[in-house]
């Protein structure tokens, strides 16, 4: 009987934790990305995170779309036009189709993952542009674990974590499929902080993000994310440190929030 | 000494002007401020020795032009240019995605 109650509680916990309580169907978050040049922050790009409900003949999905575009003043020097998107289950945020298209100063890359959750396989398509302008494709098939997601879904899943019940310094692992490679990331709750943003003074959860066995993100507890300590848990501020320097992401506006 | 300050002033002024025209924002203020300081010192030294100040005045003018560019660029709002064909491409890509999603096994209760 005790085992049955435990099992019931475990299933309830899993169900509550896997439900989408934070992400709205028509949410739009707008950010400014700045890069640190000799100690001075220079606004470089606009980053948007949008959600939209889309309907297929069989189901309704949530389209998660993140875009990064350099401000027009930079376009003649180094133009960035990146799109990361994922079509997910609106209730559980399970991904079905992921696309990534990057255009960075002439460098072009396209990635697509089609998730099959029954056979636990991902059909991957990668397209790159050669210097002569022609394209080459690489198609592969992978098997993936239960908790593996694409990067866009992972960002939204972090927002959907029950951070209130997490104790300070506790961490959660995430598995990501990125560039045809499985990556493990760890998020660690550092505590709560009140910060001033363009959408007001917000009480936030301060989170450190680290990629295990990778030197993409530098330092310990230096890649930080502030999520509002409310039901929406919107990212309002982020600090990142990479090999070529460090920068910030600041929120400008947030509309269409779920709560 | 006077020549050194004039040279430093010219280098800083050109650097300040170049960085101000390029979208480097506040970083251009470093050479501009440097140039102003070097120009003032060189001007004082020239006055003391009763020497020609034309080069210093031209350098000062370049610095002011750089500063004006910097202020003008800092007042301009950050903009994103979205081209019409990009909007059309996005819509087309979404239609293609929906077609692809029809072929994917989606199990939503």
Characterize the overall form of chain B.
Answer: rod-shaped
The overall strand count of chain A is 15
| Gross morphology of chain A | globular
**Low-pLDDT residue intervals, each spanning 5 or more residues of chain A:** 4-17
Q: What proportion of the residues of chain A form beta strands (DSSP E)?
A: over 45%
Helix and strand string of chain B, N-terminal first?
A: HHHH
Distance between the termini of chain A: 38 Å
Biggest pleated sheet of chain A = 15 strands, mixed
The structure class of chain B reads mainly alpha
What is the helix tally of chain B? 4
Q: Numbering strands along the chain, what is their spatial order in the largest sheet of chain A?
A: 8-7-6-5-4-3-2-1-15-14-13-12-11-10-9
Number of helices of chain A: 3
> How many β-strand stretches of chain B?
0
Task: Report mean pLDDT of chain B, rounded to a whole number.
Answer: 90
How would you describe what is shown here?
A 15-stranded mixed sheet of chain A has the order 8-7-6-5-4-3-2-1-15-14-13-12-11-10-9. Chain A has 259 residues and is mainly β. Chain A has three helices and 15 strands. Helices cover 12% and strands 57% of the residues of chain A. In chain A, strand 11 (181-197) and strand 12 form a beta hairpin. Chain A is globular and about 50 Å long. Chain B has 109 residues and is mainly alpha-helical. Chain B has a domain at 2-77. In chain B, 75% of the residues lie in helices and 0% in strands. In chain B, helix 1 runs antiparallel to helix 2, helix 1 (2-21) packs parallel to helix 3 (54-75) and helix 2 (29-48) packs antiparallel against helix 3. The longest helix of chain B has 22 residues, at 54-75. The model of chain B has no long low-confidence stretch (mean pLDDT 90). Chains A and B meet through strand 2, strand 3, helix 2, strand 5 and strand 6 of A and helix 4 of B.
